[in-house]
Amino acid sequence: MIINHPLLGPCDAQEFTYLGDARLIDRPDGMAGDAEDAFYHYAYLRDNPAGEHRELWFHEQGDRSWLVVTRNTVTHQITSVELARDVARKQGRGV
Amino acid sequence: MRYSGFKILKEALSGHKGWTPAWRNPDPKSHYDIVIIGGGGHGLATAHYLASKFSQCNVAVLEKGWIGGGNVGRNTTIIRSNYLLDGNEPFYEFSLKLWEGLEQDLNYNAMVSQRGILNLIHSDAQRDAFIRRGNGMILHGAGAELLSADQVRREYPFLNFDDARFPIKGGLAQRRGGTVRHDAVAWGYARAADSRGVDIIQNCEVTGFHIENGTCVGVETTRGYIGAGKVGVAVAGNSSRVMAQAGMRLPIESHVLQAFVTEGLKPVLPGVITFGAGHFYCSQSDKGGLVFGGDIDGYNSYAQRGNLPVIEDVAEGGMALFPGLGRVRLLRMWGGVMDMSMDGSPIIDRTHIDGLYFNGGWCYGGFKATPASGWCFAHLLATDTPHDVAKAYRFDRFRRGRMIDEKGMGAQPNLH
Predict the structure, then answer these.
(1) Domains by residue range for chain B, with CATH
(2) Sign of the CA dihedral with B49 first, then B249, B296, and B84 last
């Protein structure tokens, strides 16, 4: 698979390590009242769809950026690649 | 029809005109006591043990394609019970004992071959870990044998013992491990279950669950509605998709694992060997092909096909261990979709919906578990209580922090 890095252009997927569902960006608040339940859902449960899947890839052998890759889990086709930093900021994190 | 040597002789003398199909091909009835979704090894084994051990014969097995067309026909056929943890080892040892009596139980030749499995050791630390695992196995009655490098050399003289980076220092052997003809497992269970009245319904995909007041009362399928007293789901690989129809999210990701077969050779490899420094395991089929595999590809996939980098990695592992492999041509390779769970261990449990039961999360070790998985799932379906050797395989172990994590990798499914 080729991942079209937003800054570096097309890169072999072998340069990356895979983490999983991009919802792992949405780390719950550990101080909230429902933190125990929220962390169980966050750490262990997955949608695991057959079809389009947004997922986190780490460019370990490259610029060490985290990417959010939208990929089809049935065909392996990649339709969109974003910097995870931009995705997280758009969701109001890291401010 | 009972199969026997006498029957073969009789048929040979009468032109083989007396053989009948091994199982019926019935239309679904409107209601069953128990409906099992998934006509793979585990689903068919469940039906067989429900009928033969728990007197539950009003049972249907629903399969979206043809039986044995999923992972039971796509694995590397290895059986073993060489686990460390208390939650796992009694279960897999129970399974290995069932393999040992399987052909007599089913009256079907599944070509169970206890040719032994050998896990190779390449460092002192690894020897310590394997001694610990071997002791765990012995404590659970599974048997294990620690071999020195010289002992390994006598049995497998062609391995790369003096590799500069990963010399072979010995091995942990389980002599009762081995291989089984995988398709025959599906066919044998199907035939045995069918002979007791279980309906095996192929080309019947489940499209939804009927849930009334928190109780599952039936399933919608491509062949109409089927009512059920209880529904058991055994669809590893597609567990998340099927259980999503009941509104459940699972502690599972689907990943693709590739396997390979070479051209046929004369007997070269006496047993099953595993490389301890990379991830590579290999055995020789009765047809002569070397059957081998390695790591999963590492990203979510439902594709039943993998990518080239893992093929290269597996080939490198094979060449590092077994240099003669380089002279052999690869005949074919394929991928199967694995339920990778969050701790690398399976789930056999009730769900929060009454009448709906789940069996899945087998990672890439489901084949060897087939008999015990079927027996324990049948036990759960018939009695509503977990079988003693499967009582750790619960959904709530993740919430309660009671993981069964053989590799100690945490909630990262692609590392198990």
Answers:
(1) 29-81+84-107+182-250+343-415 (3.50.50.60), 117-177+253-341 (3.30.9.10)
(2) negative
* Residue in the structure block whose two tokens are 């990778």: B340
Centre a 10 Å sphere on the Cβ of residue B45 and count the other Cβ atoms it contains: 33
Q: What is the pLDDT of residues B188-223, one digit of tens each?
A: 999 999 999 999 999 999 999 999 999 999 999 999
ipTM for the assembly: 0.96
Residue A44 has pLDDT above 90, yes or no: yes
What's the average model confidence in pLDDT over B345-367? 97
Contact flag B241-A50 (C-beta cutoff 8 Å): yes
B413/A45 Cβ within 8 A: no
pLDDT in the model for residue B232 = 98
Q: What is the CATH number of the domain that holds A6?
A: 3.30.2270.10
Tokens matching residue B99: 């393999």
Contact B340, B363 (CB under 8 A): yes
Q: Which two tokens stand for residue B147?
A: 């071999």
Instruction: Label each residue of B272-288 as H, E or C.
Output: EEEECCCCEEEEECCCC
From chain B residues 280-339, the ones with a CB under 8 A of any chain A CB are 298-303, 307, 309
